[in-house]
Amino acid sequence: MTEHPFIPVIIGTNINAYTMARSFHEEYGVKPIIVGRASLPFTEYSTIMHAYEYEADLHNPKTFVTFLNMVARKYASLEKKYILIGTDDLYVQLIIENKEMLREHYLFNYIDEDLMEQVYIKKNFYNLCREHDIDIPSTYYHSCASDEEFTEEVMFPVIIKPSDGVQYYRNPFEGLQKIYKVDSYEEINEVIRLVKTGGYQEDLIIQDFIPGDDTYMWDSVYYADQDGKGQLISFAQVALQEHAMTAIGNYTALLTRYNEQMMTKLARFLEAIGYVGFANFDLKYDERDGKFKVFEVNIRQGRSSYYVNACGYSMAKLFVDDLIYREKKELAYVKEPMLFSVVPKYVLRKYVQDEKLVQEMNRLIKHGKYIDPLDYKADNLLKRKWYLLMRQLNYVKKYRNSSWK
Question: How many whole angstroms separate alpha carbon 84 and alpha carbon 92?
Answer without folding.
Answer: 10
